[in-house]
Amino acid sequence: MSGPVFRGGPVTVRPPATTANIGPGYDALGAALTWYDEVELAVADTGLTVELDGEGAADLPRDEGHLLVRAARAAFDRLGGQPPGLRLRCVNTIPQARGLGSSSAAVVGGIVAARALVEGGDELLDDEAALALAAEIEGHPDNVAPCLLGGVTIAWADDVTGRARAARMEPAAGVHPVICVPALRGYTAASRGLLPADVPHAEAAANAGRAALLVRALTAAPELLLPATRDWLHQNYRRPSMPQSLDLVDALRAEGIPAVVSGAGPTVLAFSAMPGTEGVEAIATKVAGSDTFAVTALDVSTAGAAVIQR
Ligand SMILES: Nc1ncnc2c1ncn2[C@@H]1O[C@H](COP(=O)(O)OP(=O)(O)OP(=O)(O)O)[C@@H](O)[C@H]1O
Ligand SMILES: N[C@@H](CCO)C(=O)O
């Protein structure tokens, strides 16, 4: 069989930051945010060059071990073969290891860029296949789904194949995310290690009800976000690894502001009543007194990882 036909590129992809769980939607619910990394990938004559700017540039590998390169390589394998060489440039702005889906942005960015470098790539590796591959590599479909598809997503594993699937929804106009990003990093694997094997049935039942309510709140009724973001499955168990984040969640909720831990933390995601900087005031007041968190008002990104130049 002949290999794929490559376009030279470069192609440029903008994968968004994402927030997962959003309270009770543990490992399922997610949303894309208007904060993006930028990935430029081109076919080269030979070898691999990796140029990194911004977040993580000092620490991330510049070889085949780079997460985005690994994801692009896996995508090329699915697309029929590897190019003779690769040139990668990343401009990273999404804070890493903070619960904002930076690893998903790298994985999805690599897959989407690789398929854009192959003639017919969008059909050979469609969004359903790209999602399954991204979840295989990243491990958590609740971040990769909104990163790929944009908007608000529900992810699950197919009962027969185990492959990641997702349903995408449009966010309601009144959903205004505000993120409070701490200086300290937190790693997903460590944060998952704090979760118990079992939870009481009554708490699982309460959580299921709020997760259902959360879908309605995010897509049609933002006024329900406070009750809809209450969780019983993960946040409190994770408190020892990010006490300041949980204290901030508690303080905001006590003021009637919907707030949760973003993904595996330690970023706190709150929802303001108003868009933009006006909306952050009430939240910033609660954060004041601690210089630990940087507060930024965002929107839900209706676009997922888009090819902005090919
Ligand atoms: N842009 C990137 N390029 C390459 N590797 C990255 C990039 N962003 C993150 N990573 C890798 O992923 C690790 C962070 O993954 P982790 O899943 O712990 O955090 P996160 O993806 O930022 O948060 P979460 O999954 O909870 O939303 C980093 O330490 C780094 O090894
Ligand atoms: N659902 C995951 C998100 C991180 O990818 C967690 O909370 O561990």
TrEMBL record:
<dbReference type="InterPro" id="IPR000870">
    <property type="entry name" value="Homoserine_kinase"/>
</dbReference>
<feature type="domain" description="GHMP kinase C-terminal">
    <location>
        <begin position="222"/>
        <end position="272"/>
    </location>
</feature>
<dbReference type="InterPro" id="IPR013750">
    <property type="entry name" value="GHMP_kinase_C_dom"/>
</dbReference>
<dbReference type="InterPro" id="IPR020568">
    <property type="entry name" value="Ribosomal_Su5_D2-typ_SF"/>
</dbReference>
<dbReference type="InterPro" id="IPR006204">
    <property type="entry name" value="GHMP_kinase_N_dom"/>
</dbReference>
<feature type="binding site">
    <location>
        <begin position="95"/>
        <end position="105"/>
    </location>
    <ligand>
        <name>ATP</name>
    </ligand>
</feature>
<keyword id="KW-0963">Cytoplasm</keyword>
<keyword id="KW-0808">Transferase</keyword>
<protein>
    <recommendedName>
        <fullName>Homoserine kinase</fullName>
        <ecNumber>2.7.1.39</ecNumber>
    </recommendedName>
</protein>
<dbReference type="Pfam" id="PF08544">
    <property type="entry name" value="GHMP_kinases_C"/>
</dbReference>
<dbReference type="InterPro" id="IPR006203">
    <property type="entry name" value="GHMP_knse_ATP-bd_CS"/>
</dbReference>
<dbReference type="GO" id="GO:0016301">
    <property type="term" value="F:kinase activity"/>
</dbReference>
<keyword id="KW-0028">Amino-acid biosynthesis</keyword>
<keyword id="KW-0418">Kinase</keyword>
<dbReference type="InterPro" id="IPR036554">
    <property type="entry name" value="GHMP_kinase_C_sf"/>
</dbReference>
<feature type="domain" description="GHMP kinase N-terminal">
    <location>
        <begin position="67"/>
        <end position="151"/>
    </location>
</feature>
<dbReference type="InterPro" id="IPR014721">
    <property type="entry name" value="Ribsml_uS5_D2-typ_fold_subgr"/>
</dbReference>
<keyword id="KW-0067">ATP-binding</keyword>
<comment type="similarity">
    <text>Belongs to the GHMP kinase family. Homoserine kinase subfamily.</text>
</comment>
<keyword id="KW-0791">Threonine biosynthesis</keyword>
<dbReference type="Pfam" id="PF00288">
    <property type="entry name" value="GHMP_kinases_N"/>
</dbReference>
<keyword id="KW-0547">Nucleotide-binding</keyword>
<comment type="pathway">
    <text>Amino-acid biosynthesis; L-threonine biosynthesis; L-threonine from L-aspartate: step 4/5.</text>
</comment>
<comment type="function">
    <text>Catalyzes the ATP-dependent phosphorylation of L-homoserine to L-homoserine phosphate.</text>
</comment>
